[in-house]
């Protein structure tokens, strides 16, 4: 039976804002500098980024961080209800369907004990784990659109047309690399830092992980500890749109380039059952005449890579629901429609999701 919730967006956001403000005033203008370290797994392929933390897990469990909001998520502890995981793939605007998925899961009291994600899926999953509820996430989705974060400001033009038009009007070599994706000043990290302050991944009330790709080594990097905002920022560094993140001598970009469906990471975090909402759009043939600009060619190349990194991983999931929103990666003009589609498909499959959660708890 679904539970009706009456939510005030301002009432939900205000406690977190006040808590973050209080922490900053208490700490002063400076921030605590933490030493960054890294290690490899036995295969040497998967590098986990860690950041030294001031508290051990048992100490964290005794005292919940004051900027984790009191929500259905924050009331849970890892492993409390069985080790099933929700894996949120990237996809730009299409990934906003995950918000509808989470809304239905909350309605049916199915809070995932483990969440992993990449790119926009990491943003949604990480903020949800930190206490942001679906209505807030939908509002934030509008604020985190690539148009605002890339430095392009002509907001009345649809995002894909805006980027193509920009390439036609300006020198690709001199302007694109400086203004779109290689510019100084990181709006994305500023937004994320404002939203979650210095919350560490290991402080979250659910187990969370996300990934990125290191351009230096060509390897996938998993974030399972350390500042949440840094991990999310690295995972969403979409090539040529958002500047790569620089951590510990690494140059990190969108994790979806190598693994757009981090199922294996979810299992490393303890999941015995994995649920994946599929929001990727299968590739279709394009007419040669459409390849008339550098941006179209680069965008198509990224589409090919993302499709392969999604479809090669999906068979590892225990339950997949096909949402597949019919919107472009950069089209943030139909967010409500995409969120509603996520809700609709999740409701149609709620029986299977319940069974997966029960079997994991088994």
Automatic annotation (TrEMBL):
Region (Disordered): 23-77
Ranges spanned by the short sequence motif DGA/G, renumbered to the chain: 254-256
GO biological process: lipid catabolic process
Keyword Hydrolase in annotation: yes
UniProt entry keywords in alphabetical sequence: Hydrolase, Lipid degradation, Lipid metabolism
Active-site annotation: 119, 254
UniProt cross-references to InterPro entries, sorted A to Z: Acyl_Trfase/lysoPLipase, NTE, PNPLA_dom
Domain PNPLA: 86-267
Motif (GXSXG): 117-121
Biased composition (Basic and acidic residues): 32-42, 49-69
UniProt-listed PROSITE patterns: PNPLA
Keyword Hydrolase in annotation: yes
GO MF terms held by the record: hydrolase activity
Pfam families: Patatin (PF01734)
Name recorded for this polypeptide: PNPLA domain-containing protein
UniProt organism field: Candidatus Saccharicenans subterraneus
């Amino acid at each position: 039976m679904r539970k009706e919730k009456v939510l005030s967006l301002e009432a939900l956001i205000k406690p977190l804002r006040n808590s973050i403000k209080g922490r900053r005033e208490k700490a002063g203008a400076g921030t605590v500098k933490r030493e960054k370290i890294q290690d490899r797994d036995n295969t040497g392929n998967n590098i986990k980024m860690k950041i030294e933390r001031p508290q051990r897990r048992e100490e964290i469990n005794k005292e919940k961080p004051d900027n984790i909001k009191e929500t259905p998520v924050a009331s849970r502890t890892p492993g409390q209800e069985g080790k099933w995981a929700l894996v949120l793939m990237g996809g730009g605007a299409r990934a906003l369907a995950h918000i509808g998925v989470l809304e239905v899961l909350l309605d049916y009291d199915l809070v995932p004990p483990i969440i992993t994600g990449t790119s926009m899926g990491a943003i949604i999953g990480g903020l949800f784990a930190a206490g942001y509820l679906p209505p807030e996430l939908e509002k934030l989705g509008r604020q985190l659109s690539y148009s605002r974060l890339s430095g392009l400001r002509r907001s009345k033009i649809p995002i894909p047309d805006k980027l193509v038009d920009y390439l036609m009007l300006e020198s690709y070599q001199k302007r694109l690399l400086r203004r779109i994706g290689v510019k100084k000043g990181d709006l994305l990290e500023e937004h994320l830092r404002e939203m979650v302050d210095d919350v560490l991944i290991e402080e979250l009330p659910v187990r969370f992980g996300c990934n990125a790709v290191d351009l230096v080594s060509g390897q996938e990097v998993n974030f399972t500890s350390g500042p949440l905002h840094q991990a999310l920022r690295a995972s969403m560094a979409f090539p040529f749109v958002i500047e790569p993140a620089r951590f510990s001598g690494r140059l990190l970009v969108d994790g979806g380039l190598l693994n757009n469906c981090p199922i294996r990471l979810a299992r490393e975090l303890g999941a015995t059952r994995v649920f994946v909402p599929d929001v990727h759009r299968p590739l279709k043939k394009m007419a040669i005449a459409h390849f008339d600009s550098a941006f179209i060619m680069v965008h198509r190349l990224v589409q090919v890579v993302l499709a392969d990194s999604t479809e090669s991983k999906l068979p590892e999931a225990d339950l997949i629901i096909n949402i597949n929103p019919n919107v472009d990666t950069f089209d943030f003009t139909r967010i409500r429609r995409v969120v509603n589609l996520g809700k609709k498909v999740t409701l149609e499959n709620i029986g299977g999701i319940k069974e997966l959660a029960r079997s994991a708890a088994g």
